[in-house]
Design brief:
Blueprint: H1 16-23, H2 33-66, H3 69-118, H4 121-124, H5 129-171, H6 173-220, H7 222-227, H8 231-284, H9 290-331, E1 353-360, E2 371-378, E3 383-387, H10 394-401, E4 409-414, E5 417-418, H11 424-429, E6 431-434, H12 445-449, H13 458-467, H14 471-475, H15 494-508, E7 512-516, H16 524-538, E8 542-546, E9 558-563, E10 566-571, H17 573-577, H18 583-591
Helix pairs in contact: 1-9, 2-3, 2-5, 2-9, 3-5, 5-6, 5-9, 6-8, 6-9, 8-9, 13-15, 15-16
């Protein structure tokens, strides 16, 4: 199972191209752009007040030498004023950045979902939905952190470094040169060392996750473990993982010990060195007073901390740029021409379907031709069944009728009009599909039936459920139509889900009905009820029936036998049984002992 955490996000190089793409994110800010720019102003003011603090503190210390209490009181009040201003500026900065970020991300999330849901099936045939969802979650989360705090913090640290160095140079050029030769190097070394230690921490987390997988697999498959008497094997497997965790964690602990020693010796040693040299310069008269030394030490600490933080912030910005690029890759995918609002079918088709020399290969496997020169006609009101071995291309025909994919050659005509000349929503609005594996949405039975016609009345929903043989089991629930079906309809049986799908199709009242092995996975009792409902559903419309169980299609007006992408045989049930050594006859002999 793929795990996407912040540390797993790939980084992008910061260059003109990647930055220009990142800036595109601001077009989703809409009317909220001003909040970002005003936030930057407050960020600048926050940085200025932060730089003023050491200066005032140095002046306050100098009051000891001059013994000027009145001045000390004024400076102390000034310091409190600086802190008050800084807190106010920080409040407005954070509020504005968060407001800007949440509004912008809401627009991006909506644009992403809107585009994703409109993308063609060819896109989803090449992408794993779970991975796509996880990646979107991680990328949006990374952008949220970056827009809320990382950009602001990066700019703030940058201002503190530049401003700090300028102020240090005015206090003492000599001490500044000495500080520059020690503090930044130590700070950068601390960052590199810290990152190395975090990697060891991540390795430990990964090993813990692996051990949890062992526990999960063992407990889920406990029947097999017991049946094979393999408790000893699973215990040893888990023990091995635990030992690996201990080894890595101990090694990581040793490195953390080295890091603590490094901080004590190098970082605090650097502070001691700067203070010692500053005291020397103060004694020799190169620095005016102790207050300047105090200010210098504080500015040095600011710069050291900023150097330490800015490297990590730069890394976060790289990840955010990478996240932005991946988001825009999805936003730039070309969607199908579908409206965002429910549209009533404007052009009602009759339902005459014609395949003329149709050839097709899936985009993900262009070298394998799934359909080759397929020809057939299904007129209004007819039941045309398609049978054949697995992988022959039966379900592909339904996908092409729904225009999930574009054909490579030939023509598909509906009412003598090319399928690609129809408005896509109007075309699909005239069709319904009842698949083998019905997936319901996690709402109520009413909502799932009404999915075929969102503006349906109570009477229409009731009638559709009745015609689909679903009313009895629906009324058997205490909440009736308000019964929650659970995730993917898990609370309903296979037969119940099928009848909900049939009710949904009936409510839509399609001209063309596609049944994709709709009864193949049901028990005998459920199959009887579903088959009765299907007969009601098929009445008065063109039905394309993809079947595995031949018992369900004996009454079909025409049966097409698909083999290796071609229609090998066609005729009625009776006609096909008369073909000596025919594919259909052989399939029948396998399924029915009477033949």
């Amino acid at each position: 199972m793929a795990r996407f955490v912040e540390n797993d996000l790939p980084k992008a190089k910061l260059n003109a191209s990647s930055l220009s793409k990142a800036i595109l994110i601001f077009k989703y800010a809409g009317k909220n752009k001003w909040k970002f720019y005003v936030g930057l102003v407050f960020l600048l003011l926050t940085s200025i007040t932060a730089l003023a603090f050491p200066k005032f503190l140095g002046m306050l210390v100098d009051c000891v030498a001059s013994k000027n209490l009145a001045m000390a009181n004024k400076i102390a009040l000034g310091l409190f004023g600086v802190l008050l201003l800084q807190s106010l500026f920080s409040f407005f900065r954070l509020s504005l950045f968060i407001n800007f970020t949440e509004n912008t991300l809401a627009n991006i999330r909506f644009a992403l979902y809107e585009n994703l849901i409109k993308l063609p099936m060819s896109f989803y045939s090449q992408k794993r939905v779970g991975e796509l969802n996880s990646r979107l979650s991680a990328d949006i989360s990374q952008l949220q952190d970056t827009l809320t705090s990382t950009i602001a913090e990066f700019l703030r640290q940058f201002i503190l470094i530049i401003g700090g160095f300028i102020i240090l140079a005015t206090i003492s050029p000599k001490l500044t040169l000495m500080m520059m030769s020690i503090v930044p190097i130590v700070a950068v070394a601390a960052v590199i060392f810290g990152r190395f230690i975090r990697k060891y921490g991540k390795k430990t987390q990964d090993k813990v996750a692996e051990s949890q997988v062992v526990v999960e697999e063992t407990l889920q498959g406990i029947t097999n473990v017991k049946a094979f008497a393999n408790e000893w094997y699973e215990i040893q497997r888990y023990k091995n993982k635990i030992n690996e965790i201990v080894k890595i964690a101990i090694k990581g602990g040793q490195y953390r010990g080295f890091f603590a020693s490094f901080i004590i010796i190098c970082l605090f040693g650097a502070v001691v060195a700067v203070v010692w040299y500053g005291v020397t310069l103060t004694i020799t008269g190169d620095m005016k007073n102790v207050g300047q030394l105090i200010s210098f030490v504080l500015y040095s600490a600011f710069i050291g901390a900023s150097f330490g933080g800015i490297a990590e912030l730069y890394s976060q910005l790289q990840k955010a740029i990478g996240s932005t690029e991946r988001i825009f890759e999805l936003l730039e995918e070309k969607p199908e021409k579908i409206s965002s609002k429910h549209q009533v079918v404007t052009e009602k088709i009759k339902g005459n379907v014609t395949f003329k020399n149709v050839a097709f290969s899936y985009p993900s496997r262009p070298e394998i031709q799934v359909l080759k020169d397929v020809n057939f006609t299904a007129n209004f009101g007819q039941k045309v069944a398609i049978v054949g071995p697995s992988g022959a291309g039966k379900s592909t025909i339904s996908s092409l009728l729904l225009r999930f994919y574009s054909i490579d050659g030939g023509q598909i005509l509906i009412d003598d009009k090319n399928i690609y000349d129809y408005d896509l929503e109007n075309l699909r609005g005239n069709m319904s599909i009842v698949p083998q594996d019905v997936i319901l949405f996690g709402g109520t039975i009413r909502e799932n039936i009404a999915y075929g016609k969102p503006d349906a009345s109570e009477e229409e929903i009731f009638l559709a459920a009745k015609q689909a043989n679903a009313l009895d089991f629906v009324n058997g629930f205490p909440e009736k139509f308000e019964t929650l079906v659970g995730e993917r309809g898990i609370k309903l049986s296979g037969g119940q889900r099928q009848r909900i799908a049939i009710a949904r199709a009936l409510l839509k009242n399609p001209s063309i009905l596609i049944l994709d092995e709709a009864t193949s996975s049901l028990d005998s009792e459920s199959e009887k009820l579903v088959q009765e409902a299907l007969e009601t559903l098929m009445h008065g419309r063109t039905s394309i029936i993809i079947a595995h169980r031949l018992a369900t299609i004996r009454s079909a007006d025409a049966i097409l036998v698909l083999n290796e992408g071609k229609i090998a045989e066609k005729g009625t049930h009776k006609e096909l049984l008369e073909i000596e050594n025919g594919i259909y006859k052989n399939l029948s002999n396998l399924q029915f002992s009477e033949y």
